[in-house]
Amino acid sequence: MFLFLANNAVTLDILADFDFLIFTFELMKRLLDLFRNKYFIAIAAFSVWMMFFDKNDIIAQYEYSVQVKKLQQEKDFYEKETALVKKDLKELDSNMTSAEKFAREKYFMKKENEDVFVIVKENTEK
Q1: Cα(59)–Cα(53) distance, rounded to whole angstroms?
Q2: Which of 19, 53, 73, 110 is an S-S bond match for 114, by CB 3.0 to 4.6 Å?
Q3: Smallest Cα–Cα separation from 118: which of 99, 105, 100?
């Protein structure tokens, strides 16, 4: 009885290998027919040309997208800076004490009877 089971398993294994070979052969035949098709060859050649050899190939498109992201970040930064400058300008135009404070802090201006001392902290990282 054990011999029969072993024989049956070997037969199933051989049949499975045979089915795999038939499947592989049919697949190869279909692929060969596909590669012989003139429309497939034209589309494949066009795709390869557009992806790798054209001036707007995949690598160029990636570089363009990176450049667009960088420029968008710069645009956002400058829009924020412009908004801050406009806010400061509005504040300076409306209030003279804020204009005096701005002149003292940014440009180190002083009145005639004052002395200005600027203290700069040094980083001592080692």
Answers
A1: 10
A2: 110
A3: 105
Question: Which residue matches tokens 């038939």?
Answer: 22
Can you tell me the mean pLDDT for 16-20? 70
Task: Confirm if 92 and 102 have CB atoms less than 8 A apart.
Answer: yes
One-letter-per-residue 3-state SS of the chain: CHHHHHHHHHHHHHHHHHHHHHHHHHHHHHHHHHHHCHHHHHHHHHHHHHHHHCCCCHHHHHHHHHHHHHHHHHHHHHHHHHHHHHHHHHHHHHCHHHHHHHHHHHHCCCCCCCCCCCCCCCCCCC
- Cβ pair 106, 99 in contact under 8 A: no
Q: Residue 101, Cβ neighbours under 10 Å: how many?
A: 13
pLDDT in tens, 87-122: 988 888 888 887 887 877 777 777 788 777 777 888
Distance CA 80, CA 68 (A): 18
